[in-house]
Write a structure and sequence with these properties.
This protein is mostly helical and 315 residues long. Helix content is 77%, strand content 1%.
């Protein structure tokens, strides 16, 4: 082989090598640019989520008033959280709220969304969706204040009950030991039902209309359509609704703080409110941090199985 052939062969080899390396260089360059966009968000997430989480775990192992020197107590704060009757009652209140924050909004949302899919179309449908979603837009503090007036001794609820001859059942709903927590739960259900309805209604719009037409041809009624087509088709949307509402129940604070302040007694005190009171009023930062960690674990323990069940078909 002469020199010119060797030069041409070498040139072709270099060109081929350069062509192979160009895509990898482009990929590396794209990865660097992508990370440059992601880094600010990661820094914010680390500063305002991960670092506070780590510090909370650290504080939970100390007895500290937030100002003076701290004292190492190990797992003593966690033992207190899991054995103190008042703290266990506070955690139980949060789980009771799941009935109102989750069961009511998701169940009523399914019914309302099914009805709206059939009858609410055009401008009427848009108006209905807007009205239903309004409670989600209103600040929770404002919602708590408004409902506090509505459920007061001279509020709208008691006035209506008196007007229809049920004056004997009127009471200060948010000040009654037996009815205060359900009243708070009703407020939470009112806030969340619009969100659940819109999410479920959006999910229904993705279901193939041919399935409903086939069901009607086979003689299926509305209930059978709902059970056989709508519910299976909304598996993921229902999972999202349950996840959001369970977190809202376990991490509730705003509505309870504004409406009842945790009273009467500890009847409506929830972990989020108790963490605030322990840390800033009782100056028991270590115990408050331990309760916060326990609440975090409980939220994960409730949410992860829900997410797994919602993605059951995919996994």
């Amino acid at each position: 082989m002469d020199d010119s052939s060797l030069l041409q062969s070498s040139h072709r080899t270099n060109v081929a090598t350069e062509l192979r390396t160009r895509p990898s260089r482009r990929v590396r360059s794209s990865n660097v640019v992508g990370w440059l966009f992601v880094v600010p968000a990661l820094v914010m997430y680390a500063a305002f989520v991960l670092l506070p989480l780590v510090l909370t775990v650290q504080y939970s192992l100390y007895h500290w008033d937030g100002i003076g020197p701290s004292q190492w107590v190990g797992l003593k704060n966690y033992v207190t959280v899991l054995t103190d009757p008042d703290l266990l009652g506070v955690i139980l209140n949060a789980f009771k709220l799941i009935v109102f924050f989750t069961l009511l909004p998701v169940s009523l949302g399914l019914v309302v969304a099914s009805i709206m899919r059939r009858v609410a179309t055009g401008r009427f449908g848009t108006m209905a969706r807007t009205i239903l979603f309004l409670p989600q837009i209103i600040p929770l503090v404002a919602a708590g204040i408004a409902w506090k007036w509505v459920l007061s001794t001279s509020g709208v609820v008691n006035q209506i009950l008196s007007a229809i001859g049920l004056g004997g059942v009127t009471r200060a709903w948010l000040g009654d030991f037996d009815f205060a927590l359900p009243a708070v739960g009703i407020i939470g259900a009112w806030v969340l039902i619009g969100l659940c309805t819109i999410l479920l209604l959006t999910g229904m719009s993705k279901i193939d209309p041919a399935l409903y037409e086939s069901a009607r041809i086979d003689g299926a009624g509305a209930v059978r359509e709902f059970r056989s087509i709508t519910l299976p088709g909304l598996r993921q949307e229902i999972g999202v609704c349950i996840t959001v509402t369970v977190i809202a129940a376990l991490a509730s604070f705003d509505i309870v703080y504004v409406a009842t302040g945790g009273g009467p007694g500890l009847a409506t005190t929830v972990p989020g409110l108790d963490i605030y009171q322990l840390a800033f009023a009782g100056r028991e930062v270590g115990l408050a941090s331990a309760l916060a960690v326990v609440l975090f674990i409980l939220v994960l323990a409730c949410v992860l199985p829900i997410q797994r069940l919602a993605r059951g078909d995919e996994t």
